[in-house]
Amino acid sequence: MQQPGLPNPLRAEVIGIQDGDTIELKFIYSGNKAGRRSGKPIRIRLLHVNSPERGQPFYKVAKQFTSDNSFRKTVQVRHAGNFDKYGRLLGEVILPDGRVLNKELVKKGLAVHFKKYSTSTEYANLEIQARKKRLGVWKVQDYSVGKL
To answer: Is 41 exposed, middle or buried (0-12, 13-18, 19+ CB in 10 A)?
Structure first.
């Protein structure tokens, strides 16, 4: 379901980091279905993953990792034209070096596989590996995925 005015993959500079799993691009969305997003920079919600929220363990680390790897860099976003209830485009962010930001966050334990909205076995396996190595959020003894 590709929406008019939204190239796939979308290629643009990252101009803002909201948290570990949400970035803002220097891409002004337009098109028939832009709605309230028309004329505003587009926000991307990283697909398949969920990073800690403000006040949770590793929130700052996840946000900083996302910033260090993407801020002021031109990235590509693979997407299907789907938006979440907050108006963010859902997609995978490909970094300039070819790595996928979504996967890197899970590999390092800075995000979990968001099973509520993703059935990806690849992301599930990345989470299992990070958990086994006790990386990031998996260092916290009583850490519960339900808290994310």
So the answer is: middle
Q: Which are the catalytic amino acids?
A: 45, 53, 88
Work out the widest C-alpha separation in the chain, in whole angstroms.
Answer: 49
Interval 42-70: pLDDT, tens: 999 999 999 999 999 999 999 999 999 99
Identify the three-state secondary structure at position 132: helix
For residue 39, the Cα-to-chain-centroid distance in whole angstroms is 22
**How do residues 79-109 score in pLDDT, each as one tens digit?**
998 999 998 999 999 999 999 999 999 999 9
Sign for the pseudo-dihedral over CA of 102, 71, 55, 133: positive
Domain spanning 10-137: which CATH class is it, in words?
mainly beta
Q: Is the model's pTM score more than 0.85? A: yes
Q: Calculate the CA 37 to chain-centre distance.
A: 19
Torsion angle, alpha carbons of 130, 75, 62, 102, to 10 = -30
